[in-house]
Amino acid sequence: MEMSFLFLLFAIAPIFFSALVVYTHQRTHGTLDITTASVAYDREQYGDLLDWNEYALDIEGKPTMIFSGEFHYWRVPDRERWETILKQYKTMGMNAIRIYFHWGYHSPAEGVYHFDGNRDIDYLLNLCEELGLFVLAAPGPYICAEVQAGGYPSWLIAKRELRIRHAEYMLWRVYDDEFAQYEIQWLNHILPIIAKHQITLNNNNNNNNNKKGCVLGLQIDNELFETMAVVLPIGLRDQMRVLAKAARDAGITVPLFSNDGFEESSWVPRDATTKKKEKAFGLDLYGFDKYVVFAPTSAPTSWFLDTGNSSASWKDWNPKQMEGSLDRLEKTVRAFGGGAAKSPMFIPELQGGWFNHYQLEHTYDMIYEFYGDQYTKLVVDSCLAQGVSILSLYMTYGGTNWGTIGDPDVYTSYDYSACIREYGYLSMRGRNLRQTILFSRSFDPYFTQTDRQYKKSIKSTARKVINTQRVSANSDQKVLFTFLRNFNRDRLEIFDLNIDHPEGNFTMNCYLPYKTSFTAVGNYRAANGLHLLQASIPIHLRMTNPETNEEIWIVEPNQLGGLAFEHREMEVSGNMQEDALRRQGPADILKFDQTEGWTKLSTATGNLYIIGLTKSQISTLYANFESDYWNEGKGRMPSFIAWGADEMYYNPRTKQMDINYRRSDTGIYVISFDRPSDNRFTAVSRGVYNMPYTYSMDLQHAHQKLPLPVQINLRDWEVRPVQLQSLPWHPLKRLSNDSAPTFEALDYHYTSGHALYRTTFQTPSGNVKLSLNMRNRATVLVNGQIIGGHTTYSRQLFSPGAKIGPDPWFLGSHTYDLTPYLLRDDNEAALNEVVVLVDSFGLCRQAFIMNDVRNPRGIIKAKLKGLDQEPEWEITGVDVRELDNQYNSCGFPDERMNNGRWESMGSRIEQDRTLYRLSINAGSGVQWTRFRFDGLPKSRSSDFNVPLRLHMEGPFTTYLFLNDALIARYYGNGDSPQHDFYIPEGLVQQRNNVVRMLIYTWEDTTGEISISGWPVRFDSGNLITGETDVASVTGSAAEGLNEYLTWKETVRV
């Protein structure tokens, strides 16, 4: 009988689980009558403006690669810098940006929307059009991005009847029409502004001044998996349907696209050839995100196991991680079929660094070192090897989590160890990536559309150095691109390439350091008729002049690699090459014995100039690409080439080039078939670059007059205590008649910074202890004196204070003995006041499959033990709905009270040159401190740029406002690793800047504060700190002992 029951159980189990799988899938299919076809891009109407095939986007009929960088305008509090940063993207060779539009940043209260000032996205999109940058628009409504509530406004989260992002539980969504209507409300505010800038409006008769739009596509939601691991249904089809229809109803006519969390075939459009496919739902373009290597303290293992807070045990990242993540992309995505097989390979978010967490010991500088200078170039090169033609780097410039905009995953800095560091420095990682972008764009159209060549025509004597090969499609030449990537396990750097050629094989040497990459060009015919069979050195750029059959290449020569040309008559001259070509089979191999200079290869029909630059010169390489779209069909790819300065940017409308140069930069070179119009440029007649079309200009170092290092005096120090008794306290409220009073900060809309709690009781005869459970950071005061504090925060799921995912709210209590601090009165019972400050690290962001946006904030439970009865609690804070910006608050109601009792700090401040020390005592409770400073003197506002750094030391806590903008949250006890804060230039006035600091401490201490420049290493941009760092800096990097400074110049080209 028992055996029969077991057999029956085993027989029924598969049926039960099969039925369960079918049910869980069917329930996500939805009922809304919105089909893929009903919201599809109208190719018949707009196809001449924007179309695509499996290779690339066609923009006004021209196949175009999209090299985009993520840009978060809401992480740049000074709008004046938007243009500066976007010009840096152009300097890197990028032709597009992706923008997350942040609902909560624009809507502090229900029905209130701001699109002015630093939230003027119409201005931002106009700016993109002026700069010639395409835009991939991502208005959410959910954006993730390590921001509070994933970008949803807190007033929406406070509506507890709503299922946020339709989440009923973790892993389980149920469609919520009321929530969807709020999402549509947001889209109806934001999309009409975006719609005015669509590329599809270019043929609209109402389009003023023939203005060209910049928006190429609109992303719907963010990383909304349709399924995970193929079988686990996550996303609701109605969830995506309603947003897509809302976009079309609001006037969006460009293609809609998705960003699958990783390649999982979510929302792939399919032809409705069967009933099943008819019920499916997809968007116009299939996109997927790729994050390849996690920083060790953020790796998936750290979500479940405590891997420690130190970077001391970190090991180098393993190439197998990149190979496993990227080297099957094309095969995997094309196998999805439908639109995924017919549209370009598209990565809306491609890893450009990584973020950092609270309570870790390392900063972003260590994360930069972990990945290294070559990491982003390796990732992008590996994606291009898979045929990717649309990619957006997340992040390119990270910016600042100013105010409280960040979620619990991140602190004030969002540097991201990105290509452009938070204070504006273009790092070597960005400069190396630029090499790939310049190469790719200069070899248009051949590189834009390619097919994979599965039978490799090149073999190497070293393993793991040849990634893939691709061949040009739909072009007049079948150019061969060999993607070299050195992941050799023995770390060999020198090897041979054996080239199979129909007319005979030949061998070339190659030098490629470990964990570096470049794309080797083969089977390419230059403008003068020379046929390049194969290159084994990088060709970074090419520039052609069809009128004279002349061509210029920029190469990075070494004494091993070379260029193999098909044997034919040519004249060789210059100062860089070996005396004679080496004949081998069908090839004449040109090799070089100098690392800089030039070589000229002349034929009867024209000249090929090969210019060699050193690695250092290549790091400053710039090329101006004038695309057909932005230049009335008269594109030049590129129109000129330059090197020698920190950064350059050319404006084709004004014909002027902005030059930012460092103290080590002495002059710039320009290669152009047309002579520059600025008479400061002279034709080069001497030196290693004495060849035609080369011009140079010396850089004037007037900036040496600026005294360095930068010294900022802080003056007029004043202090004002927070009068806790005078704050607007009110009793805890009940959410319903039969519910207990709620401590939850969200229910009061106290979602920025602190929520404050107070109770009073008379001194009893025995001991009194406070049992306190809260999130995230508590400070306890008894009778105005701070007696201690604690933090509840974890990087692990299912742990108290989890930064992401489930938080067991019933765990995490901490007990304080209040007895020693109680008032005693012999005649009558004394009245004691207990105040608890609870500092929130922000609302969780509801990422992926999580349902954590309403994880508790503020006090969860507070119990006073030793009293006859539990006293009632009061609460106060800042209702963010009453603010213009819901994130620009520390949570103290008196934060903008300027007419209080300010007193001079006098001798309480010690000055050591530009370092200021102040005593901070727990017995003083919570105080406001303020001081003033003047900005750097400038003869002209555009003369130079010296970013400023605010440095703090000591185990105290402060929220710091600069001219009313909250720019720093400092936790000196170790809750945050950040001690150096970037001061956004646009917030700094020439005179009389006011800094206000909310300060308190858990122990008596001395705080140190200074404002100076950024002494950095000129490869990584990492801050130089301590004697050990200083001693290790040699050579040109030694100028980092003074602060990073760039002087500015403008020339006509």
UniProtKB/TrEMBL annotation:
It comes from Circinella minor. Belongs to the glycosyl hydrolase 35 family. InterPro entries: BetaGal_jelly_roll_dom (IPR025300), Galactose-bd-like_sf (IPR008979), GH (IPR017853), Gly_Hdrlase_35_cat (IPR031330), Glycoside_Hdrlase_35 (IPR001944). Its EC number is 3.2.1.23. Keywords: Glycoprotein, Glycosidase, Hydrolase, Signal. This is beta-galactosidase. It catalyses: Hydrolysis of terminal non-reducing beta-D-galactose residues in beta-D-galactosides. Residues 59-435 form the Glycoside hydrolase 35 catalytic domain. PANTHER family: BETA-GALACTOSIDASE RELATED. GO terms for biological process: carbohydrate metabolic process. Residues 899-998 form the Beta-galactosidase jelly roll domain.
